[in-house]
Amino acid sequence: MKRHIVEATHLQAFTRNVFIAAGTPQHIAEDVAEILIKANLAGHDSHGVLRIPAYLEGIKSGGIVPAAEPKVLRETENTLHVDGQGGFGHYTARWTIRRVIEKAKQTRNSFATLTRTGHIGRVGEYAEEAAAAGCIGIITVGGGAKGGGRILPFGGAEGALGTNPIAIGVPTGDDSPFLLDFATSMIANGKTYVADSENRALPPGCVVDKHGNPTVKVAEYKDGGHLLAFGKHKGYALSLFVALLGGLGGTFNPNAGQIGGLTMQVIDVNAFTPLAEYQSGVRAFLDVVKATPPAPGFDEVLVPGDFEARSRAQRWENGIEIPDTLYRQIRACAEELRVSLDF
Fold first, then answer.
1. Would you say domain 1-67+305-343 falls under CATH 1.10.1530.10?
2. Whole-angstrom Cα distance, residue 1 to residue 13?
3. d(Cα 131, Cα 58) in Å, to the nearest integer?
4. How far apart are CA 182 and CA 216, in angstroms?
5. Which of 15, 63, 178, 256 lies at a CB distance of 3.0 to 4.6 Å from 58, suitable for a disulfide?
6. Among 48, 29, 31, 119, which Cα is nearest to 337's?
7. Where is 170: in which H helix or E strand?
8. Neighbouring residues of 339: CB distance < 8 A, sequence distance ≥ 6
9. Please, how many CA atoms are within 13 Å of residue 128, restricted to the half-sphere of its CB?
């Protein structure tokens, strides 16, 4: 398949300009563009520029209010409840995590809930920001309702859950923090978009069609299919907890059996143990784990965060690959908004 190689800085500038042309204020467009490109650099193309056409369509349909600013609904010394007012989730999430970090530095531990916030992109982005500030960050996005999700409950035949991701960032004192970042489904829904854009099959054991039969075909998944929870009953249980945690924001409807929301927790390491010593101990421990002799079929042992750090270094050097199918979609958006693509 034909691919286009684009420098990250060029792609970020284009992404910013296309959102500005669609009515997004520059400061919001800057944040959204940067977060999308950082997802591509980290190797998570499912949460990068692939999302541009859908976000532009959201603006056009009124599903995204491009100029919306976050609004604090309730606040204490170490808690925050934020209304995204229907705006870009990336901007609201970054705005919120930075305030939660500030609170954690003052009160040791801080917690936030967010409502009316659109898709926030790669959840690990905000856990990484907490880690970079010398904190442990825990981010969850979860929800579910009767017939209201693409994920099957364990043993069920009808979707009732979102992909309900969780991300945890832990500082290591270097540019490769420990970063756990995954959906509680076998694969994130966005991975199906990537497979579709590259005209390839899905991994076996992740998806069933509308009749409950295993499939690897994106078309069958899109036609009423469902994703499976990872780890059978264990992943399913974790997915439920993420949804329940989201309910702390008050985004639940008992009559409809609906619950969910977005939460952020930040723990200031220095409040419990000196940060430098902790980071040194974490890195030493992780390095010991990585030094474990690899099992047959493996070249090495990695820890969470290694993949993103390696991908980031490689893609900064070599550029970001864009499948031709996605390139053509982006080009159409650029032409409609009269923004120069020039790559």
1. yes
2. 26
3. 31
4. 20
5. 63
6. 29
7. strand 166-170
8. 14, 17, 18, 21, 333
9. 19
Distance CA 162, CA 121 (A): 15
Cβ 67 vs Cβ 25: under 8 Å: yes
Provide the whole-model pTM: 0.94
Residue 69 near residue 87, CB atoms below 8 Å? yes
Six-digit token string for 236: 């399913």
- What's the pLDDT score for residue 69? 98
Q: Cite the residue boundaries of each domain of the chain with CATH code 1.10.1530.10.
A: 1-67+305-343
- C-alpha dihedral sign at 290, 166, 192, 18: negative
Q: How many CB atoms lie within 10 A of CB 253?
A: 10
Q: CB-hemisphere CA count at 13 Å for 31?
A: 22
User: What pLDDT shows up at residue 197?
Assistant: 84
By the 10 Å C-beta count (0-12 exposed, 13-18 middle, 19+ buried), 303 is classed as middle
Tokens of 309: 């750090």
- Strand pairing partners for 138? 168, 265
pLDDT at 52: 97
How high is the mean pLDDT in each 10-residue block of the chain (343 residues)? 89 97 98 98 95 97 97 97 97 98 97 95 97 98 88 94 96 96 93 88 94 94 94 96 93 89 97 98 98 97 96 96 93 94 76
Residue ranges matching CATH 3.30.1370.60 in the chain: 68-185+229-290
- Bridge partners, residue 79, by sequence: 111
Enter the CATH code of domain 68-185+229-290: 3.30.1370.60
Count Cα neighbours of 233 within 13 Å in the Cβ-side half-sphere. Answer: 1
